[in-house]
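[#protein-structures] MJ: dropping Nucleosome assembly protein 1-like 4 here for a structure pass
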Amino acid sequence: MEGDHGARGGADDQIMQVSQGPMGLQDRLDSSSHTPSTIIESLPKSVKRRVNTLKQLQVKCAHIEAKFYEEVHDLERKYAALYQPLFDKPTDEECEWDSDREDEEELAEELKKKATVEEGKEEAGTEEDPKGIPEFWLTIFRSVDMLSDMLQEHDEPILKHLQDIKVKFSEPGEPMSFTLEFHFEPNSYFNNTVLTKVYKMKSEPDPADPFSFEGPEIVDCEGCDIDWNKGKDVTVKTIKKKQKHKGRGTVRTITKQVPNDSFFNFFNPIRVSSDGEMDEDSEFTLATDFEIGHFFRERIVPRAVLYFTGEALEDDESFEEEELEEGEEEDHEDDGDEDEEDFEPKKEEPQPAECKQQ
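AK: finished. structure tokens for Nucleosome assembly protein 1-like 4:
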């Protein structure tokens, strides 16, 4: 015990020596302005070296964290294969769902409708049973703000033919990425059955700024060529333009194709330049594209039916409202602080001894 006490005493002495150096480290910190750069500059060399050691350890932590996210990507790939059979073809048993909203009145109404249908079957004939859920994905596109902003009126007839959206992860040993696959039934607009968008990712700290690492990030994306049928390409529009000959003064009309707003521009993204230099508008467009790709992967595809029914939208709205309420509370607290400066509390009346004891 004495040896332990002596060891601790020696450590305490060293700490006291550092804190009460030539000027006293604590005095230096107190006398300097409290910005990180000025505080670091005011430290003794020995302490600066310790800070640099901690920064080196932080870089090593970032590299270990990058490996962690690579293994998470492998787990995503593994479980995506387990999820897929559930999405391929549901069984008749899985089509049953007990709704909490059904009550006796609704059941009675349902029986009345069924009786009416039975009576009119001979006259009206059998009703055709549509395949799948009509306009399933188009309904989702219309409902979700991030997707409806991309949607144009001329896109809607095409998206009625969209049958499924799938997420495919890169294979083991390949660079980290994921692919969005848009599966279409045969249609009169293009010949592709699948349109793809590949998002390339990296999970490694930036050598120039390793401390900014926060996990995998999308670094580039690549679309696909759409084999449009003649006159069906909604990503371009034809305009007529008059040209006047300078010498003869004659006027001619020419037709010209110009880009057109469309969701299907999603498959022709801006590419990251080799030198990494892009103008501000291009950077913003690319960042928005990355956000949409991540949103498809993380939210839309895994919870598609809940976005179709609107339940996922209600969850998203509730989350936003909660954030807003927290912000409002902070504002009220700030207002309260300002009011308290001018507020003079009344002197409390003396309480009976019993109250004080309680």
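MJ: nice. The two ends are 46 Å apart (CA to CA).
AK: one more thing. Residues 45-88 form the longest helix (44 residues).
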